[in-house]
Design brief:
This protein has 284 residues and is an alpha/beta fold. The chain is built from 10 helices and 12 strands. Strand 3, helix 3 and strand 4 form a beta-alpha-beta unit. The radius of gyration is 19 Å and the shape is globular.
């Protein structure tokens, strides 16, 4: 009998009651939990246990949750759900900018946290007890391939065919849906799960405009044909896209990869003729 994949979570929370509640909720969801009461201990717990999921309080003794998220992001792509008693939108946006994938305000309902965790698992059905990097060569997750798309080879026809199989290309950007790898002319690009998900959705849409509402629902793992999307959800998409562009070194004013359609959403930028002639483009 095959052993079920191990799901590991790290809970970084200084309030013992909330910490115990989080451990109980995640334990019911099938996670093995490791808890930390300070930011420094939380960073080390993530480094040691390499969790699929990390819950992170903002108000921590010593270093706060924003700095903890930044430190964790320097070596891990664990899915971070940030918890905050602060109601201001700026705190949520700062958390996302620091590297969090999702956020939840305190006091929260256990059912809501469980729903967000289950949505994360639907998006990453093969998630087990280690983080899966988008640009570090980590073990792959299972992601449905783009409908109607075929694998492309490296620009100019260089490279081993087996190694190039499954890559999608556009203007020097290369993304592999199944291995969850991303690279451009500068080399591998390390993306969070949410950043990778957004980029993949836009790449698969080619020149079709993807609305912020659709992208927000994709990130939540909800049915994109319906569901409530708040202004905070849309702002979260904007923050993730800003971080993505910074990592890709993609200009907003003259984009090479992702183009903003003001007031509507995002789409793949126009193919550059020199790149297209060299190795083909996703938008052809």
């Amino acid at each position: 009998m095959t052993e079920a994949p191990r799901r590991t979570a790290v809970v970084i929370e200084d309030d013992a009651d909330i910490r115990n509640l989080l451990e109980a909720i995640l334990g019911q969801a099938g996670f093995t939990c490791f808890a930390a009461a300070t930011g420094s201990d939380g960073v080390e717990a993530v480094r040691e246990h390499q969790p699929t999921l990390t819950t992170l309080d903002i108000s921590l003794p010593g270093i706060d949750g924003f700095e903890v998220a930044r430190r964790i992001r320097s070596f891990s792509s664990t899915y971070i759900i940030m918890l905050s008693a602060r109601m201001e939108e700026i705190d949520t946006l700062m958390g996302l900018d620091a590297g969090a994938d999702d956020y939840l305000t305190k006091p929260f309902r256990p059912r809501e946290l469980r729903a967000r965790v289950e949505a994360m698992l639907r998006r990453y059905p093969e998630a087990v007890g280690f983080p899966i990097g988008a640009g570090t060569g980590s073990s792959p997750e299972t992601v449905p391939p783009p409908v109607g798309w075929s694998a492309t080879s490296q620009p100019g026809g260089q490279g081993n065919a087996d190694e190039d199989e499954g890559w999608l290309q556009h203007n020097g950007l290369r993304i592999h849906p199944e291995m969850r790898l991303c690279e451009n002319d500068s080399g591998p690009v390390d993306l969070t799960r949410s950043e990778f998900e957004l980029l993949l959705t836009i790449v698969q849409g080619q020149r079709r405009v993807i609305s912020k509402n659709t992208l927000a629902l994709e990130l939540r793992g909800d049915d994109v044909s319906g569901g409530y999307v708040s202004e905070s959800d849309r702002r979260a998409v904007e923050v993730h896209l800003a971080n993505l562009r910074r990592k890709l070194k993609d200009s907003v004013s003259s984009p090479r990869y992702v183009e903003t359609v003001r007031g509507v959403g995002y789409r793949l930028a126009m193919p550059q003729p020199s790149r297209a002639s060299a190795g083909g483009s996703l938008a052809e």
